[in-house]
């Protein structure tokens, strides 16, 4: 079994065939799909989708790209939603949260304000964090350390070996997906090949970060096994070994995955 630890299955790109996409993923061997929220407006959406989709689970959080529209009271709503979800076996953590220094025009202080507030929630409720780390690895890591968050996933990791090891030392796992399938992505491929297997989890970020064979097309969660084939070849192991290892790693990163039945 494979686990897609990051898939925006609620995105509008899936409105026409969402159920078919989820069924195709399951048929391909993807037994779990983690659906992270991005804003207060989709908290209820990702929860409902996880409950009606076989094998799906969800996380709740406010994405850094949505902080310009977010209001302070959204954090109060998030806290209430998290508290109410603790008895829900399909709820796995706080996410997608973090910082983005790639997209121009974002207010750094505003991003940091929401990131810190959500890390406090992760710490308060002892929940893992699913972190957006685009061009922000060091700053995201500082926040994890500051708030004592020692479990979760650095999503779509693309930092240095030094940064990777710092996240691993903090107890975080590193998400790899379609980017490893591009031969020109030398740094990501080196990381994916050489980091300890215990640190790696699989993801798609569907509908985004498509693999090379879907370049500029919609990504889907059923691509995880084929991405896994590429990653396994880079590591000199079998896809079966990689599936077994990364599935165990996903449960270590998001322990509440063990609570939900398929």
Provide a compact summary of the structure.
This protein has 262 residues and is of the alpha/beta class.
Can you describe what's shown?
It comes from Paraburkholderia caffeinitolerans. Belongs to the metallo-dependent hydrolases superfamily. TatD-type hydrolase family. Keywords: Hydrolase, Metal-binding. GO terms for molecular function: hydrolase activity, acting on ester bonds; metal ion binding. With 262 residues, the protein is α/β, with parallel strands linked by helices. The chain has helices at residues 18-28, 43-52, 72-85, 108-125, 137-147, 161-169, 186-194, 224-235, 239-253, and strands at 2-4, 30-36, 56-60, 91-98, 129-132, 152-155, 172-176, 200-202. The chain has an eight-stranded parallel beta sheet with strand order 1-2-3-4-5-6-7-8. The radius of gyration is 17 Å and the shape is globular. The model has no long low-confidence stretch (mean pLDDT 97).
